[in-house]
Design goal:
seven-stranded antiparallel beta sheet, single chain, four-stranded antiparallel beta sheet, alpha+beta, elongated, about 50% helix
Length: about 1150
């Protein structure tokens, strides 16, 4: 027993209990080594000669009692001391050792029971030693000050800087500071497994001499524990051997006891280094271990990781160490070689789709399967199920690891694990968000995908546990992130953009709304200080945008420089350093009580900063009036959920899209295999050479499909399974509810980060495109309701003035445009409240000049497609014989017009005359611009094609030319839609601007007809070139759109309307009757054969015939029919290939002869 500093009076020691009945504890130690250690700890009397050491009797724990009695007898101990109590060495009356057991300047009483320290860190021992049993000591402290009283070993040495508790061989208790000491200090009250102390009682479990022996062993062993090669080769294998017996991790407490010994007998820095090397060794072993069918290696390493993390102190250090590296534990790598992974044994039978529709899509109708196909498919599904069950074992262990990291009940040794993990997790997100342009420092996306699924599972389990304990809170099914997190400064969003723009700008413009709605007041001095960094940018960009009253600006305006300012990070971090105050609204007549809230950096936050305390809402500071006063869950889970949404936006969605390529490869090889089998069936028996080559191709395709189908089974189990789909669906619903709650706050909605809207749109896209056809989105619970909620968000916010970011506004418009292309999602748009539908249509009909109008115009076209003249096609008729690049594109979906939304459009245009006039004038202006640009570009293309020298046409120019043509057609369709739904806008001249609109319309229609229908005109020549990139440029789409308008105003109107329209059309200076005749095909009887090839509605073949055989296809692209023959060599190809080739080269594809001319080719009828 020892004490340090101050004044203390020791009293007699009392025996409380005896451990005579306890079993002896021995370790597996070399007998000679154990004897040497015990002889060293309890040396024999110095009277024996040096030679006696070599002949002394071997000493064990069983002989230790007799050895000690012999030593006491040799020292001529008094008769009273020989009769002392078992487990104690020394006199029965305990006094202070004033002869040799002290350090520093001390005054000791005459009775050796009292001591006063007169120097810094004075220390003194007592004259007793205990080694077994339970003992209690009593000390009377007669002065104030810092004092440490405890126990030490014989080897413990004190000095002026270190006293009892400051060395590894001593323990002490400080009643003044209520802390215990053993080199480091912790709060009093922790129960040690090897040494437990409570109210001054020390209980030594087992034989204390073992502990003393282990202390000496670890004294030499600890430095070796920091060597990476020893940790990986010896320690890790030893720990793995403990778990080899199987069973749960809880059935192997030896690992916990070993870790207890590490922290007890080694220096903290040594334990930290040892654990660090052990964890790195486990990471390497897990990451690079081979994939075997039962995933045994991965399971083994994860079990050991779980066992280590069950140790509280070790877990907290490892979480602090590095979360980024630990993400490796949650990854299940995809095997590149199927045979090495044993998948051919686990899935012996493979299967792939063999039936496809006209567009090349897989037909999932199992009714037409043959018996053999059905057996193969079922056997393949059973193999996939076996693989999934084995993968689920690994995933369950990964979730257990995360649950240990998210434990918030282990507060005995300081901050709980969850809050350490949360701060490190936030730092991990910051590093990945800030270094997106530097992939070398990012967490790989494939790791992120697995990590997010395990994290969602762990969050939901803790969330539901909290729900069971607190029935008033919401369940994980209704989870969302409260809007307070976006503006109260408790969560740092780094450089990520807010919906309303720059954060410092939002704080200045919305400070009154923050005070009124959220009871948050911002210190003006802090606002001024935080905005100094952006002063230069504000001067350059002029007046700042106000999100509460801003209008969506068009694409012609430059994006404000502050949206990509290099100081964006500093400005966004302003809220983390600004002083915010909380107003108490209970006393409206008195001045509001202000409570200063200090927000720490991410790595410095504590549990109180996150969860809050009395009078402090923590992360939920500043609840708006619109937010329900209902407990949600533990606030730390809310921030982790916010991080999960951010993580999906950073890289998870992109990775989900990349992994679909395996499914696409299976589809392509299956189509190729089926095509090869059909060719084998048609191959003439006399052509054995062709048959042999086809059979080789068939074998190659089949082997590739066997490999890919097994690999696809692994990917479906790890990435696209039903459970993973439910995780993404849950994340979608979280984002939808979060957006709805934030939207209810009014202008404070501008504080929401953009990634919530991005995740809502992208997760829906992933569910629809990536998880099918293995899993169907329609089977998800609450699918229809979720679809409607997302439709309401898109309809409301695509033109929301509170959103100022150009990129996010474009994304919202593109998402809405894609939404109206599919029947199910379009029906969801029709199910939203009528008020929201009318508001959406009003935004779509806003004038086109001051906003990006192409997307909104395309939305209107999709609402009309299927109702216009000649507008019921999925693909353009002249492109039907070519294979689409992606049959899943929204533009290639079957027409699904919305009569309900058309009716809303008609109501708005008929009731609001000013809006109708401004909208149609803007459409006519954009049509004039788009068609003029198109004509100018095709003139340049034609001039380049006619030059004899080699000419290069930029592919971007071809793409822009095709875009201008598509815009012209879509604008004509919107005009057709408008004049069909509300003809009085043009024909009722009592309305203002009606006559002017009709004259402008007639002028543009005549210009289009004259340009497109003139004989041997520029348009004809460019169309006949069939250049790649200009496939959509053809007579049909633009002329049928013009015809639809003419039919509506000249045929389907009333008598007065027809006369007015005809008079305006005929009186236009650009009108040419020949264009109408050419369009209708009249007067073709006397035309030459070349002239008859011009387009007309009379001769138009909407569904051109397909090539009858492969010999009729172009040998260059195998997509178009042969339509051109070269001079003088007579080789053939399609017009698209030869025209593109002649732009850069005049030599024949096949014989390299110089091509002097190209004629049209038509296959003879006799062939």
């Amino acid at each position: 027993m020892s004490s340090k500093g101050g004044t203390a009076l020791s009293r007699r020691s009392y025996r409380l209990a005896s451990d005579a009945d306890n079993p002896k504890v021995t370790g597996i130690v070399n007998e000679k080594l154990l004897s040497d250690y015990l002889q060293h700890v309890f040396p024999a009397s110095g009277k024996q000669g040096p030679a006696s050491a070599a002949y002394r009797k071997s000493l064990t724990f069983q002989d230790l009692g007799a050895h000690l009695e012999k030593l006491l007898a040799e020292d001529n101990v008094t008769e009273d001391s020989r009769d002392q109590i078992e487990g104690c060495l020394g006199p029965l009356t305990v006094v202070l050792d004033h002869s040799s057991g002290f350090e520093g300047l001390l005054f000791v009483d005459d009775d050796l029971l009292g001591v006063i320290g007169h120097s810094n860190f004075s220390s003194i021992r007592a004259t007793t030693c205990v080694y077994k049993g339970k003992w209690v000591y009593e000390v009377l402290v007669s002065s104030q000050g810092l004092m440490q009283i405890g126990w030490c070993t014989l080897n413990c040495r004190f000095n002026q800087e270190e006293g009892v508790g400051d060395t590894p061989d001593s323990y002490a208790y400080d009643g003044n500071r209520v802390r215990k000491w053993n080199v480091t200090t912790t709060n009093y009250g922790k129960e040690e497994k090897l040494v437990e102390r409570d109210s001054g009682t020390w209980q030594i479990q087992g034989d204390p001499t073992i502990l003393v022996t282990l202390a000496h062993i670890f004294n030499h062993f600890a430095p070796l524990m920091c060597k990476v090669y020893l940790v990986e080769d010896v320690l890790m294998n030893f720990l793995l051997s403990i778990l080899e017996g199987g069973g749960s991790v809880d059935e192997h407490p030896l690992i916990q006891q070993l870790l207890d010994l590490f922290w007890l007998l080694m220096e903290d820095h040594e334990v930290n280094e040892c654990l660090k090397q052990l964890m790195m060794s486990l990471l390497r072993a897990y990451r690079f271990s081979p994939i075997i069918p039962d995933l045994g290696f991965q399971i083994h390493y994860l079990r050991l990781t779980t066992a280590i993390l069950r140790h509280e102190k070790s877990r907290k250090y490892l979480i602090t160490f590095d979360v980024l590296r630990s993400v490796v534990f949650f990854y299940i790598k995809t095997p590149l070689r199927v045979k090495e992974a044993g998948l051919d044994e686990l899935i012996p039978t493979t299967w792939w789709p063999t039936r496809f529709d006209k567009e090349g899509k897989d037909e999932r109708d199992t009714c037409e399967e043959t018996a053999e196909e059905r057996l193969r498919r079922r056997a393949y599904e059973r193999g996939c199920h076996r693989l999934k069950k084995r993968i689920e074992v690994v995933e369950e262990l990964q979730v257990q690891i995360l649950r240990l990291m998210l434990n918030n009940k282990d507060k005995g040794t300081g901050e709980a694990s969850r809050y350490i993990f949360l701060n490190k997790f936030r730092k991990f997100l910051q590093e990945n968000a800030s270094n997106r342009g530097n992939p070398t420092v990012l967490c790989p996306p494939e790791y992120m995908v697995c990590f997010i699924h395990r994290l969602i599972t762990a969050i939901r389990s803790y969330w539901d546990e909290g729900k069971r304990k607190s029935p008033g809170s919401i369940s994980s099914e209704d989870a969302y992130v409260p809007p307070q997190l976006f503006y109260n400064g408790k969560v740092d969003y780094f450089d990520l953009q807010r919906l309303g723009g720059l954060l410092s700008h939002l704080k200045k413009t919305l400070k009154d709304d923050l005070a009124a709605k959220a009871n948050i007041i911002i210190d003006p001095a802090e606002i001024q200080a935080s905005s100094m960094d952006d002063l230069d940018e504000d001067e350059e960009t002029g007046a700042a945008q106000r999100p509460s009253g801003a209008v969506a600006m068009g694409g012609a305006l430059a994006r404000p420089s502050w949206l990509s300012s290099p100081t964006l990070g500093r400005a966004n971090r302003f809220l983390s350093t600004a002083a915010v105050s909380l107003m108490t609204p209970r006393r409206p007549l008195a001045p509001p009580e202000k409570v200063k809230v200090r927000t720490l950096a991410v790595e410095q936050r504590t549990e109180e900063d996150i969860e809050g305390s009395h009078g402090n809402d923590g992360l939920l500071l500043g609840r708006p009036l619109e937010e329900p006063d209902q407990p949600i869950t533990e606030k730390s889970l809310l921030e982790i959920l916010d991080g999960v949404v951010m993580m999906y936006n950073l890289s998870v969605h992109q990775q989900l899209g990349k992994m679909v390529v395996v499914s696409d490869d299976v589809h392509e090889y299956a189509v190729a295999l089926k095509d090869t089998e059909e060719k084998i069936a048609r191959c003439p028996s006399r052509r054995l050479d062709i048959l042999e080559e086809l059979q080789k191709s068939q074998k190659v395709f089949a082997e590739k499909l066997n490999h890919l189908s097994r690999r696809l089974a692994w990917i479906n189990a790890t990435i696209y399974s039903k459970e993973k789909m439910l995780d993404v669906y849950w994340l979608l619903r979280v984002c939808i509810r979060t957006i709805e709650h934030s939207d209810s706050t009014g202008s404070l909605f501008a504080f929401m980060p953009e990634f919530y809207l991005n995740v809502a749109m992208n997760s829906y896209s992933a569910l629809k495109n990536y998880f099918s056809p293995s899993n169907c989105m329609e089977e998800l619970p609450g699918y229809e309701e979720t679809l409607t909620q997302l439709a309401a968000i898109l309809a409301k916010h695509f033109a929301d003035p509170r959103i100022v970011g150009t990129d996010i506004k474009d994304s919202l418009m593109q998402a809405l445009a894609s939404y109206v292309c599919y029947p199910q999602s379009l029906r969801a748009v029709e199910r939203i409240p009528e008020e929201q539908r009318m508001a959406m249509m009003r935004n779509l009909l806003a004038p086109y000049e001051q906003r990006p109008w192409a997307q909104t115009n395309w939305i209107l076209v999709r609402l009309w497609r299927g109702c216009g003249f000649g507008y019921r096609y999925t693909r353009l008729p002249h492109l039907l014989k070519t294979k689409p690049e992606d049959a899943n594109l929204p533009s290639l979906q079957k027409p699904c017009p919305s009569l309900l939304l058309q009716r809303h459009m008609a109501e708005l245009l008929s009731q609001d005359k000013d809006m109708a006039a401004s909208f149609l004038n803007s459409v006519l202006n954009q049509l004039n611009w788009a068609f003029s640009e198109f004509i100018g570009m095709i003139q340049e293309i034609q001039q380049a094609a006619e030059r004899p020298e080699r000419n290069f046409v930029d592919t971007r120019q071809l793409k822009v030319c095709a875009t201008c043509f598509d815009l012209s057609v879509s604008l004509l369709r919107v005009l057709e839609m408008t004049i069909t739904l509300v003809p009085e806008i043009f024909l009722d001249w009592t309305r203002p601007s009606a006559e002017l609109l009709l004259r402008r319309l007639a002028q543009l229609l005549n210009q289009v007809l004259n340009r497109v229908t003139a004989e041997r005109n520029l348009f004809d020549r460019v169309v006949n070139l069939r250049l790649p990139g200009l496939e959509s440029v053809d007579h049909y789409p633009i002329l049928v759109a013009v015809t639809g308008i003419l039919v509506r105003i000249l045929v389907d109107s009333d008598k007065h309307g027809i006369s007015r329209a005809a008079s305006v059309l005929l009186s236009d200076p650009c009108f040419q009757l020949r264009s109408i005749q050419y369009l209708l095909g009249e007067g073709d009887a006397g035309a030459t054969s070349a002239d008859q090839k011009h387009f007309s509605l009379h001769t138009c073949n909407v569904f051109p015939s397909q090539p009858t055989s492969e010999d009729d296809l172009c040998p260059i692209c195998y997509a178009h029919s042969i339509s051109a023959i070269f001079k003088p060599c007579s080789h053939k190809s399609c017009k698209a290939c030869i025209n593109q080739h002649l732009m850069n080269n005049k030599d024949c594809f096949f014989c390299k002869a110089t091509i002097t001319g190209v004629d049209d080719y038509t296959k003879p009828a006799s062939s």
